[in-house]
Hints:
The chain is built from five helices and seven strands, in the order βαααβββαβαββ. The protein is of the alpha+beta class. It has one domain (about 1-155): Aminopeptidase (3-Layer(aba) Sandwich). A seven-stranded mixed beta sheet has the order 1-2-3-4-5-7-6, sandwiched between helices. Helix 4 links the parallel strand 4 (about 75-85) and strand 5 (about 110-115). The longest helix is centred in the first third of the chain and has 13 residues, at about 40-50. The protein is globular and about 35 Å long. The two termini are about 30 Å apart.
Amino acid sequence: MIELRPVEPADLDEFFEYQQDPDANHMAAFAAKNPSDRGVFNLHWQSLLDDETITVRTVTVDGEVVGSVLAYPNEGYPELSYWTAKSQWGKGVTTTAVEAFLKEFTARPIRARVVKDNLGSVKVLHKLGFRTVGEAQGFANARGAVVTEEILELA
Length: 155
């Protein structure tokens, strides 16, 4: 069973562990410069959790922490972001979790950004009704290169 719940302090250990996966960092692209720096990770997550304009949830499968989903203000729109443990890729977990999150977080339009070659994430967003509204280029730490992102929107 896939569920969302508020983030608990112990969840951060799991989130940090998932952030160590090089394949996941490559797909996300816009990861921390040094994903193994726990101090930077803790500071980042504390700022997310302390910010009342950010809605963040832990994703669990049968009670096991497998990721997170959140919305934060960005350039005049709420923006969706999520991370799913690589062990859960291709199982529908991300689609189900994001769909549940969007039922709770109802502000529209909401946007998401995804590197164009992250086909799994693009597929999730399209399946949930997001449509491409633009592109942007930016330097991705995890790839050490400039990448092109799709900007998608759910009206």
